[in-house]
Amino acid sequence: MLPIDEVAHANRWRARHPGEKAFLALGLLVLTVALPPWPGAALCGAAALTLLLAGARIPLRTVGRLLRLPLGFVLVGAIPLLITVGGDPWLAPAPGGPVRAAELVGRSMAAVSCLILFAATTPVSDALPRLRFIPAPVTEVALLIYRMLFLLLDSLHAVREAQTLRMGFGSWRATYRSLAGQGSAIFVRAFDRARRLEAGLASRGYDGVLRVRPGERPVSVVFVTASAVLLATLATTTLLATL
Q: Residue 79 class from Cβ within 10 Å (0-12 exposed, 13-18 middle, 19+ buried)?
């Protein structure tokens, strides 16, 4: 299981209705994109992190692990804003580059924090069946891919462990050969599992629709109201600070 899926199934907000968490997280995301980077995006990012740590009770170390990879991509993407190429001299610092890079990093990481607020508190199996406005075949394919992903990851770990025990990574040549073997083995297993899944669905009278009934979870009026108040407060504070 991926770390974000483990957190999504074990956090304090696991039993809340996905709509509540979507309203809060996507509302923060909209404010992050619409408001100025400072202080709007910074306040939204701080609110998302606070809700992750204090609201959903996700450990700080886990939150750091979830943010580490996106942060690397954002930092690499901000490097071109710091330099100019082709002038005189050919390579020189860009005017205002540090400010624009800081704004980019701040807004991007705030948006990522808002997305993680939803992804780390809501399992995919809870959210997808409730997307009534999306055509049923699309959600069914997404659920099947989600299920197959974990099966293939388990297969990948099993193949890699077997290769490691057989000294399959003792040299560069052996490593390349082992990686090629991993790819071919997972490719074959993916087709085999897909064939078995199709046969299993056909034997159960599959007629084109996977009927899944999600668990009943009442929407908390208090939670939705508090979320709306938080969003309004962040927007008002930012607009007053920029006047």
A: exposed
Q: How far apart are CA 212 and CA 220, in angstroms?
A: 23
What is the rounded CA–CA span in Å between residue 15 and residue 8?
A: 10
- pLDDT, tens only, 23-76: 999 999 999 988 888 888 889 989 999 999 888 888 888 888 888 888 888 888
- Helix, strand, coil shares of the chain, percent, nearest 5, are 75, 0, 25
Q: 149-159 in b/e burial notation, b at 16+ Cβ within 10 A? A: eeebeebeeeb
Q: What is the pLDDT of residue 228?
A: 93
- What confidence score (pLDDT) does residue 1 get? 59
Please tell me the distance from the alpha carbon of residue 127 to that of residue 237, in angstroms, as a whole number: 32
- In Å, the largest CA–CA distance within the chain is 71
Phi and psi at residue 8, in whole multiples of 5°? -60, -30
Report the 10 Å Cβ neighbour count for 48.
Answer: 27
Mean pLDDT, range 157-183, rounded to an integer: 80
Neighbouring CB atoms inside 10 A of 199's CB total 10
Give every CB contact of residue 78 below 8 A, 6+ residues apart in sequence. 101, 104, 105
Give the predicted TM-score (pTM) of the model: 0.75
Residue 235 to residues 18, 28, 114, 203, 226: CA-CA distances in angstroms? 23, 10, 15, 54, 14
Burial class of residue 103, CB neighbours in 10 A (0-12, 13-18, 19+) = middle
Quick: pLDDT tens for 198-207. 777 777 776 6
Nearest to 63 by CA among 47, 72, 73, 52: 52
